[in-house]
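Work package 3, deliverable 3.1, input record:
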Amino acid sequence: MSRGEAEAIIQVQVEKLIKKYENIVAVRDLSLDIYTGEILVIVGPSGCGKSTLLSCIAGLEKPDNGNIIIDGEPVFSKERNLFKLPEERNIGMVFQNYALWPHKTVYDNIAYPLKIRNIKKDKVKSEVRRLLDIVRLYGKENRYPHELSGGEQQRVALARALVMNPKVLLLDEPLSSLDAKLREKMQYEIKGLQKDMGIAIIHVTHDQNEAMAMADRIAVMKDGELVQWGTPKEIYECPQTQFVANFVGKANIIDGVVERYGDKKKIVFAGGYIMREADIDGDIGSHVLLSVRPENISLSKDKGAVKGRVAGVNYRGNTMEYRILVDDIHLMVETSSNELYAKGDIVGCEFHKINIVK
Amino acid sequence: MDLKIFLRKNKGLKKHTKRLRSPLEVVILLILGVLIGSFILYPFVILVMKSFGLSLDGGAFSLEGYKRIIRDTYNYTALRNTLYVASGVTVLTSILGGALGWIVARTDYAYKRFTKILVFLNFIIPSYIVAIAWIEFFGRNGYLSRILYKIFGLSNYNMRPYSLEAVIIVMSVHLYPLVFMAITNALRKTDSSLEDAAVISGASRLKAAMTITLPLVMPSFISIGLLIFSRTIANFGVPAVLALPVGEEVLTTRIYSSLTNLDFQLVTALSIFLVMISGGIFLLSNLLLKRKGFTMITGHSKKPRLIELGKHKKTLTTCVFIFHILTTMIPLASVLIASFLKRWGLSLEIKHFTLNNYLLLFRHEIIIRAFGNSIFYGLTAATIAACVGVGVSYISHKTNIKGKKIIELIASLPMAFPNIVLAVAAALTWIKQPLKLYGTEWIIIVTYIALFIPISIKNIGGLMQNQDASLEKAARASGASRIKGFVDITLPLTMPGIKSGWILGFLIALREIPISLLLYSSGKETIGVMLFGIQSNTYGLEMTSTLAVVIIVLTVIGNILIGKIGNVKRGGGGNHTSTS
Ligand SMILES: Nc1ncnc2c1ncn2[C@@H]1O[C@H](COP(=O)(O)OP(=O)(O)OP(=O)(O)O)[C@@H](O)[C@H]1O
Ligand SMILES: [Mg+2]
């Protein structure tokens, strides 16, 4: 779903959130907005605080500082000493391990949120039916969780999270224990559901492919902080830091030197230029870090100012993967599979779509 | 006979003999048959026969013994008292152990390690010693009366330390660790995100705990409750010191006093009755567990989310500490202080303290001999029980001999037998030819063997079951014979179980009272006999306490050793406290 800046409604607003455990700061000074009808995917390495952030939004953990506003209503505010309990927030959440109750049937798992609110029996029945329909589990409502496959369990958890029609759905790596095929299928299903219901989803994962496939926006987390956020295209094409470049997709990180190029500047690496007429701030002679995606390096026998030797060749079906040794560093290069070079060939490299990173 | 049936039968026979071809299996089966048959099955049969008025040389069948359990007031009261005490202990331990277990497993209470150590201490201190401590604290000359006198000048202290309630409290102090361990275990296995999911769904924390966590730990709760119930019923030492002196009897003490009246039919009927209660409870708990067997879905389970006690933290911590003081520290301090008194009954002044008791204890010839006896009986029985355990486990887990389930069942039979019943069965069985063991140490050893075999099967069987079958197969593929494969691979891997079996044998022999009390003869006294009967004109509670302190120290050392050997799971069943 695309959103026009003007009409975007903020569904969840997180401001300067801090959460500490004893001596660990799991979330530090993090601010983030999630808009109605979008999927925001939070990616980051294990232990960076993704689950903690979700737990704070859900109210399972009490943050140490900051504000959280859901649907225009503050649910946590340090200054106002406000903390709404999780049961008062009407949020849907799917846990990393699904957290299906093993002693309750599929039906009772999905019906629990309704029953706990003393909703009438007929209504409970019809609502559970509706959800069973949506997640396509009709006919399996009397099974126990352990009698279901991984994908089915996942859908029960989803149904339970959606049964109260929450405006916000939190997904904590719900797909991580599924095999690759099923995971891809579920990615589509969740995206489809979200389109139909128009709710805001915050989806946590440490799988960057999943992030790319599902996200309207991606937020990259590291050590409890957001390092960059934007559309998948922005994140992939313009990573601002070495970490983001490496975490989302593959990247070559190159240490270049700024030199004079007429009245402009150029960036030089291993005796050749990478970028001419560079529009950069760096002083002449200073070092800059550059990130270049493997598919943005082209190889040729005669062109290219940076020369290297082919050190490894890998056939990948539709593409070729080369390792090019330049000075003493290896560059990863991906080309179409009809460009063929042999190990030991000397090739020239041309660089496109270069990003200066921190 | 129909030819077809005959042929089929013969075929079956052939198959059978074929399966038994391995000489190892034949030898093992033979030895096991002899050992289990004579040490477990034979006494059991004698016991059952005697209860119906029968014996090997005849006698007339009658139900008189059983009728008298219901008919005679004495017996009936004992039965009622037994059920009262067992229910009381079950309820009290469930509350204490359950609450403490929940605090440790699910809240941010700060002194978890400390609590676990104290609970474990309670777990290993023999119940009889807790009973001694109870008398020393609440008795007429006890610490409490002295404290009340010192502080408030109260001189008319008349709290009665002897009662069924005292038995309930002392047994609870001894048994609540079982509940604690079962509950912390169950809670640890119950992912806390299950409760989180309920809270997200709109339930309050309390409601989530009641609807999600409680039902999930209920099976463990019930089965440990049943275990506690049958453990209490089986106990002899505690009611013998805390209830018998005021004429209150339970079934175990009733058996003991009927035995001194040589009323064998009643004794055996009472014994069988007791076994039936324990057996019934055992079956019940199996049934319940089977029905409620949820398979937990384990994703990647994380550190449980701990409930923040917040402003209640101080109050709760104080409560836990008071609990520890009452249940662990006061009993330990009571026996420790008494062990330094020149004579029990003297006031607690420096001039009345001495180290002499300990010197005296180790100069006392009978006590030294009792230590030697206990160690010898315990280790000998543990060794033989280990052999049986290895044999039965091997047959159970590594072969597919027909009837292996029955062998294991019979060998595990003594588990349902209170120690005093084992003692009664032994007394009746070994008193005359063909095997007259009465009057020798072997009657005690043989009974210990029966007592240890189920424990050894549990330990060793557990280890063998977890062993990958491919390990022994690999040895055979490398050219080892079946026997060699067993000796080189399976046996070393079960060694931790055998070693800890020896220590357990030693520990049980140190604390066990009813078996040796009923079966010892002059010169064959054990530590249990000494502990039970050391008080006389020359010695008072101070010597009992000294002995108790030594036993506690040895027990702690033994348990540390078992922990070091590792591999053998403790907790849950906690079978090595099988006491008096
Ligand atoms: N209950 C807790 N007590 C103490 N520390 C915790 C607790 N929960 C999480 N942490 C710590 O906080 C940090 C962030 O944990 P969190 O679970 O949010 O990471 P994550 O990004 O979700 O990791 P993963 O991808 O492995 O799920 C980690 O260092 C973790 O060890
Ligand atoms: Mg996580």
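Residues A 21, 24, 26, 44, 46-52, 206; B 303, 305 surround adenosine-5'-triphosphate (ligand 1) (CB under 6 Å).
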